[in-house]
Structures are given as C-alpha cells and as structure tokens.
Records
---
Amino acid sequence: MVYAISFENYNKFLDSLIQKTDVFAPVKGKVSSFEKLKSAEEFNADVLTEYTAKNNFLKQGELILTHKEGEVVEPDLSKIKEKILLGLRMCDLASIKKHDIAMNNKYADPYYNERRKKVTLFGYHQKQCGDEYCFCQSVDLEVEYDLFFYKRADHYLVEVGSDKGKTIIKDNQDLFEESDYKMTKEDKEIDNQLKLDSHDIDDIYTNNRGWSALVKDCLACGQCNALCPTCFCFEFRDVPKQDGSVEKKRFLSECQLECFSRVAGDHIFRKAQIDRFKHRIYHQLQYFKDKFGKTLCTGCGRCIRHCPTKIDFVTKINEMKKEAKK
Amino acid sequence: MNDYIPQKVKILEFYRESPDNFSIVIDFKTDHEPGQFIQVSLPGIGEAPISICSYSKDHMKLNVREIGSVTNSLGKLKEGDEIWVRGPYGKGYPMQELKGNNLLIIGGGCGVAPLKGIIDYVDQNREDYQNIDLFFGYRSVHDVLFRRETPEWKNKYNLMMSVDKAEEGDDLACFEMKTGYLMERMKELDINSENTVAFLCGPPIMINKIIGLLKEKGFKSEQIFLSAERLMQCALGMCGHCMIHGKYTCLDGPVFRWDELENFKND
C-alpha cells in the first residue's frame, strides 16, 4: 500500500510532528548536518549533508558510566528521548543498518541499541542524489525505515516500512490519502556517475605500486573517517569532574591517524600511511563483507567529495582490478 | 546486560618482579583459558587490556610492565587496594586440541606473562603433553621475571634463559643464564619440529626473527601460535582498534595461529 500526501499537507504533517517530538533533518542555510527543526520550512530536502546522522546513534561523548564515591553508576538510558530523523538518503539509511550489525556482533552495545530503538526513520528518495562522487549503486544498500518519501510534481508518495510507520500514518490519516499507484523499479533508481567495478579487492592487496600512487596525496587528516556514515570505530576517555567523580565517555576515533593503532611503549602497528589508508578501504569493502556478507561502505562518496586532495580510490581500484585480471 | 560495566576487585598480593614490572594477585574468580585477557581500569586514568598469567579458579594473577598510563598507575598500588576489571575476553591457546604434542614455549620480556598461564595449565595437566621446553629472553639480569617460579620450572622442564646484555657482577649462574639474543642462543640448539607446537609472545621484532628461525628448523605456520598485542578499547568486538586484517584481536585472538596473520603484519 502506497500513500500520497500533498506538499501543503506535508508541511502541516511536519509541523505537527515538530510540536510533539524532536525532528532532525538537513536544514536550509546550514547545509552541513542534520539539525533540529523548528518548523517544516527549515527542512532542505535537496542537500546531501556533509555530516551524516550517525551522531544520533553513536553520540560523541556518550556517557558510558560514572565512577562515584568508589562505585560505578550506570547512566539511565530510559531518559534518552524519542526523535525522528527526516530526509535520510539511501546511503544514510543503509549505514544505520550496517551499524545495527556492527554494534551487535558478539556482544550488544546497550547505548547504541537504546538510541536506535528511539529513532524513527524517514527516508527520502532523490534520483539525482549527489554529484560525480556518488557510487552507491556499486555497493550493498540494504535499508530499514519507518516511512519513505518519493517526491512527485505536486505531492509525495509514501511507502510504509514498519508498524511504527503504519501508526504514524494512522495518527495523521486526514493528511494522507491511500493511493493505488504501483511503485516501479524506475521510481527507485538513483543516478551514479561513478562506478566501482568490484568490491572483491583481495587480489589487489599486494599491489604496492597502485596503492602507493593512491596514497601519495593523502594528508592523513582523518576527514574521511569523520564524514563517513559508516565509520564507527571508537575510543573511551575518562573525564574527571569537579565533585571528584569520573565520567567514562565514548568518542569516535579515526583509523587514518597514527595513534589509532598505538600500543603502550609507543609502538604503532600501522605507522605508514599506506597501511592506514588500505585498512580503511579494506574494512569498508572487504573485511566487513567477509564477516557479515555486506560491504560496510554505502557509496555516499563523502570521503572523496570532502577529501582535501580528492583521492578517488574508486577509479584507482577499478584500474588495479583490470591490471590484476591481465 | 551492559558488558562495559566493570566490577571492583581487591589486590590480594602485590610484589615487584623487576624495576619496571610487578605481579598482582587479585580476588577475581572466573573460568578462563590460558592466553585470555581482562580489561583493567582505574577511574580517571583509563582502561587497558592485561593478559592473565595464571590458571586458577580461586584467584587471578596479572603480570604488568609499567609502560603506559594505566600500568604506571597500577604500579603505585599496594595490597588491599581495589581495581576495576571486566572479562575474561578473547580466544586463548587451544590446549585441548594440542594434547599429545611437545610444547616449545618461547617468550621475550613481559611476553613471558601470558605464557606463564600455559605453564600453570600444563602443571595441572602434565600427562596430556610430551616434552616441555621453555626459552625465555630478557634485556638484562635485572629484567628477569618470575624469579619465584623459575626454580620450580627449572626442575620440571627444560628451561633455557638468556639476557641480551650482561655486565660485570651480574649473577647469571643461579638460573644458568646465557648471554646474547634469545634467537642466537636458540640457533645453537637442536630443535625438532616433529609433533611439536611453538607458543610465542614477545616484542614484534623478536617474534618475527624467531618465527624465521623456527621455519628454518622445519616448523610449519600451523605449528606456531602467538599472542598478539593491540590496545583494545571495548574488548567486545566493536571499537575496531585491535583489528588485524579484518580479525578482531579481542574476539578472534589474542592468540592466533601464525598462518592467520603471516601475510598481514601491518594490518
């Protein structure tokens, strides 16, 4: 069943959601991230944000525990507020699904899972999604959502992906209309200019010449890690408070920095940038797939688009693959 | 269930092994395998993975080198103080599968610590294994660890110890210690690879050289097990810091069979 909602009603719908819940979406003017909406007008659907929505699940500075008066106090996770994320592109939605897997490997991460449980996901389809750096059609895009919006000339078509989504439609039934439109494959297409020929890259692992040529421009700044929707590696820091207690907090960490693989005694396992660069690419395309059957990368292209030296590893991997086949 | 939450345990015994290394016995009762590790934390300092160097259900012994912020702070504690622990984590040495083999146990410096867990295990299951060789190398006489246990090891097993450098007046005689790199001393020995497995732990440079030597002596990669060192943050297979070519050292290791790692030294 597909629903339709007019632009006018859509704005009413958003405004009523904003009254009840925190709604985060790409915001007009501030193009860089998902911001809390004050009104429906602020939502800018045309922007593929620089910063992704991952901070809503893997919160920077997440309080893990507090050491207080010789005891450990667990934070009250029930206080985490419900929120709605709006305007999620396919790549961003897919990254959430990957995190669901990564954060529930052998052990479950209670902080991630609580935040995840309390987020309602609204997908947003854009055929001309990004720019020349998008390659999402070359990787695994598996998504979960509550509602998914497709823009038409004068209305949105809405697909329902969960019971939660169904309830939202039901609660706002005066704004949505049932539609007998059948979604086609074409409706869901996303245009890519960039194509990764294969993400099976085991055979080019030892191509030192190829990787060196790619890495020579890398500044090891870690921007790719910070903006990647799927990079989830993290570290803990103990933060002492004035009252004598200590808070253990979690922050995302960057595998492109030397300190990532440092151990006591200052031994750094991935000292050379080529090893760090390859680690990122292999984690994204190979390791995660070997373990869980899907690439970690969602092909959003942010790591190329916002790279200070625009390192296009996709084209280079295609070249190396061709070379390997010869 | 929140696996990040540590529990408080008491230090039952604290004693120095060397100027920058100490052993502690903690009141932590848990089932574990030799080669597994726990996460030890001190509020305000941080958390660090420490290998278990005992094999007992009643208590746990840790051997620690003071080299980072957590370990330096641990070194300032005393008997009766409390620390925070969680675990045990990881995959240890596959002792059950290796029954009937000769064991070649090779350690360098504080790398001897996880190997001591094997020795304790073998003590309790001596009939399951054939010859036991212990080859330990230290920087100097002052860095020799486990002096309390060494006399017993010397009686029970074939023990060879060497120090990289000796100075005048150093007492090498007590454990019949040799001088020079452990690898050089091992070259002189007649080591038979048949029906033998080697357990290694130590600094990367030493490990790489000794593996080369073992290969020369006829060992296959499948006969070599080593304990990898990484700085785990979560130890739960998520944080990514301990990843070696897609494998989590905290879940798939810290003990790896050499063929799992040999092509991926810098990953």
---
Amino acid sequence: MIVETMQLITQLAYVVSAALFIFGLKLLGSAATARKGNMLSSVGMLLAIVAALLDQGIVEFQWILLGFVVGGAIGAAAARLVQMTSMPEMVALFNGFGGMASLLVGAAALSTATGTFTLVTIVLSILIGGLTFTGSLIAWGKLSETIGSGAVMFRGQQVVNSLVVLGILASAVMFCLQPENPTWLYLVIGLSLLFGIMAVIPIGGADMPVVISLLNSYSGLAACAAGFAVNNNILIVAGSLVGASGIILTQIMCKAMNRSLSNVLFSGFGSVSTEETEIEGEIKPISVEDAYYVLEASSNVAIIPGYGMAVAQAQHVVKELTELLEKKGAEVNFGIHPVAGRMPGHMNVLLAEADVPYDQLLEMDDINPRMETVDVAIVIGANDVVNPAAREVESSPIYGMPVINVDSARTVFVLKRSMASGFAGIENPLFYKENTRMLFGDAKESIGGLIRELSG
Amino acid sequence: MEAVFLTFILMLSIFVGFELINKVPATLHTPLMSGANAISGITVVGAISLAGTGQHDLANWLGAAAVALATINVVGGYLVTDRMLAMFKKKGG
C-alpha cells in the first residue's frame, strides 16, 4: 500500500515538473520573462529529482550523493568561470556530458531489460548518447581551437562512414537478438563513439552553429531514448522538448545559410571549388582619423558584428562607441545575422554582456529595409553574412544565402585584420565597392582609436 | 501497451516543443540552448534509480557516473543560463 502511494506521488510530481518545464520554455519566449522561465524550469528539475529520490527501489544514497556533489561542483564552477565569448564551446561540452549520461543509463538498464522493445530503446540511447558525446567533444575542440577548426576531409571518407553505419546497424541487430553476449554491446558503444567523431570532423568552424544546434537536439533525444529504456515518462517529455528545440534551431541556422542540413553535414564547406570571378574596383583603406570625420557627420549608424568581434573581445569598446555616437545625437542600431558567430544568438549574448539593450539589436529582416537610410554601416569581424555576392554572383558558393545588405548604406566601414580571405576563401565584392572603406587592424584597437577621436 | 503509451507521450511533447520554441526570439537563442541543455540533464532522474540499487555491480557504478555527468548538465546549464539572462536589459531599464 505504502509502495503504491509513493509511486503515485512520484508520478504526480513528474506531471507537475513536466508542466513547469513547458511553462518555463513558454516564458523564455520573451526577454522580459525569460529569467523567470529558467527559474521555473529549474524548480521543475528539482522536483523531478526529489521525486526520483523517493522511489522505493532506492536503498542506498551515498553514490547518488557523491554524484550530486561532484557533478554539482563541476557544473557550478564552469557556469561561474566561463567567459561569454567561450559560451559555444561550453554548451558543446555540456551537450557531450548529457549524451554520455544517457549512454551510461542505457547500458546500465541492460541488467534489468526484458523484451525486444526495451532492448531496441537501449541500443538507441547508447547510439545517440555515444555519438552526441564524441561529436560534442570534437565540436568543443574545434570551437576552442584545441584542434584545428577546419573541415577534415580525406579520400574514401564516405566509404568509411558507410561502413561505420552498416557496422552499427549490424551490431545493433545482433545485440537485440543476443543481449547476453557482451561483444555486441561493446561494438555498438565503440562504433557510435567513432561515428560521432566521423560525423563532426568534416564540418568547418563557420558551420558550427548548425552542428551545435543539432548536437543539442541529439542530447535531448538521447535522454528520450533512455526514458524509454528505463520506462520513465519525465525523461521522455523533457528529452523530446529539448529534441524539438534543437531541431528548430538547426532549421533556422540552415535557412539562414540557404543550405540543406545534408549539405552542411556532408559537404565539408571548405572544399567547395569556386570559379574565379573578376571583381572590379579597388580596395580603399581608410585611417582612423578619416573614419572619425565621416562618423562625426553621420546621424544614422548601423553596426554589424561577426565572429571577429568575439575573437577580438571587442564588445565592450563597441558599446562605448555606441554611447559616444548617441551622445552626439546619432541613432545607432545593431544588425544581427542569424549565423553570425559560432552558435545561435552568440552576438546577442556578447552585446548583452556589454550592456547593449536588447531592443537595439535588430534581426536581419528588420535592419535590411532601413539600410538605405543608414549613413555609416560598420562591419566588425563579419564577412560572409554581409557578402553581396550572395545576391549578385550566381557562381558563388553562398549564392542565395540571405545577407545583411550593408552595401546599400551610404558608406560602409569594414574592420578587418588583413585582406586574407575568410574561412571558405570566398571573395567578398563588398570590399571593392565604391562606398566601402577598409579600416585595417585589430577591431578592438581600431574602435579604441575612434573612441579617442570622438571623445577628444 | 506500455510502449504505445510512451510513444503517445513522445509525440505530444514533440508537438508542444515545436510550438513553444518557435516563439523564442533570435536574441534569446543562446540562453534557450543552454537552458534546453540543462533540461536534457533530466537523465539524472533515470540515473538515480540505477545508482541507488545497493547492488554494487557494474550497473550501479554506471548509474553513479551518469548521476555525476547529468548533474554537471543540470547545475551548470541552469546557472549559466541565469547568468546570461541577467545581462539582457531593455533600453533605459
């Protein structure tokens, strides 16, 4: 009787915590309520954990407690210490841990598994969890530049990948047929870990927003599969919410690059062969002083940040520049391309860190119609997302990708380290346009120079 | 029947997820992602029951390790999301 009551309480608590997750995500739909939403979601999590601890099957708490202490300490320290510019690699790493946890739960559930359906779900949680783990580690390595961020391609890659997939399928089937033979289990684990590596190495650094969204989705789906394996509702609900969120972000990122998901995953962007196109015009460099004179006289300024702003840690000086321009009576807006940076919303977080109000950050579709009234568009460390070739040059590999049309502004300043072409080696005709001026040098120093001129 | 019932839940929550996330503005995509990441740490609930069996067999140790890994996700994910969201301010606010 007591056991049944306890089980009922646990299940009811799961219902409440599922509602809290859903309501929390709903509040995340607006910046004004988002913090409360995150809080609600964490209360839901706490409730689910307490409910799970009340489970009658638990006879021993010391290992659970140790897990809480170790995991909690690492998680809290990482959350406190991480720099906002390193957010993409941290999210990648956390995704990986989530995947590994689901793999372990799947493997551990084997000891009590009965029936083919449970075995299939165990295989799924090991497979998705495993590839999320190693895939995320590779993504982390690429994002933090621990390993090279370029696309790794080699001859016969497709063949190797196909063999790995076939191997996974074969060993998964064998595992379900002979669950008592551990060889198949080890094969499934090993091959899914290998598959995660193989899946992410051919993807270049600039495509990371897609990969990280996709891995986010996988970490949810892995939790979902683990939920099937241990027969737990709340895992399925929460896991599929995360899975859905990752899939939507993946779609948004792909759309923003005008590429299909399979193109991002399998093409290895860097290897696209480009036709040589003659670009007319010449590069016109500008000094900080001359740039200041132009800025002084302008009343409408748009700033378009890219990954280079994150690399140069320039978000705080950008904010300072914004304030000075506004003091002089100019209107300043930011144009944020969906794939600017290394993860969805990367630029927004950096600018929020620098105290730029979020209503000053405009999405691409909002800033483009205004671009013709802009006196100066300042491009900071962005390249492909402002490349007019996406509209004009049909042979360009990024043709068709929606971009921010900075070239319709009266004057464009491009802050760039040097003329070396971007990650994909795509020529940018913007640099040669009549109204473009190149401000060469470290973005942080160039903006610092402008600030000195403006406040002097 | 159990399998059908669980699949039912799966389908409904995927639909709810799509509806909810579609409304999140682009400016909040990074916090959304790290917040979702914290939610995916829900695996900890599955891991708890495996880590507390008192059996001291392989499954027990795997469960304990899974508790630790998923807790990193939960604690780190929620804290860092809160840290980020605290920075988002409205003009003049």
